Amino acid sequence: GGAQVGMFDLSRGYMSGLQIGVWNQAGSMEGVQIDLVNIAEKAFGLQIGLWNQINEHQNWQHVLPLVNWSF
Predict the structure, then answer these.
(1) Bigger pLDDT: 13 or 36?
(2) Could you give the percent of the chain with pLDDT greater than 70?
(3) C-alpha separations of 60 from 16, 21, 53 in Å
(4) How many other C-beta atoms can be found within 10 angstroms of the C-beta atom of residue 56?
(5) C-alpha dihedral sign at 8, 25, 32, 57
(6) Is 57 exposed, middle or buried (0-12, 13-18, 19+ CB in 10 A)?
(7) For residue 23, what pLDDT is reported?
(8) Cβ–Cβ contacts within 10 Å for residue 60, how many?
(9) Average pLDDT for residues 17-24, to the nearest whole number?
(10) Nearest to 2 by CA among 32, 28, 36
(11) What number of other Cβ atoms are within 10 A of residue 52's Cβ?
(12) What is the pLDDT of residue 58?
């Protein structure tokens, strides 16, 4: 695990730990994303922000405001 802190955080592969910034994007995420915009292809963890998107969800939970999760 680790941390990424910045304006735009992009991890095309696997991200484990914490992402904090304005725009977070990860291929596969395990941990926490805190930002205005959070996008993950696959996730095991929590997203907190205005736009929270987990692409592996194909239901109402695909995009949620404020918080999104996958456990």
Answers:
(1) 36
(2) 100
(3) 25, 25, 11
(4) 12
(5) positive
(6) middle
(7) 95
(8) 7
(9) 93
(10) 32
(11) 25
(12) 87
Residue 70 in tokens = 């996958």
Which bin fits 27, alpha (ψ -120 to 50), beta or left (φ > 0)? alpha
Residue 56 has pLDDT above 80, yes or no: yes
Place of tokens 């996730």: 43
Predicted confidence band of residue 42 (pLDDT cuts 50, 70, 90): very high
What's the full length of the chain, in residues? 71
Q: What Å distances lie between residue 37 and 8, 30, CA to CA? A: 10, 17
The 3 state secondary structure assigned to the chain is CEEEEEEEEEEEEEEEEEEEEEEEEEEEEEEEEECCEEEEEEEEEEEEEEEEEECCCCCCCCEEEEEEEEC
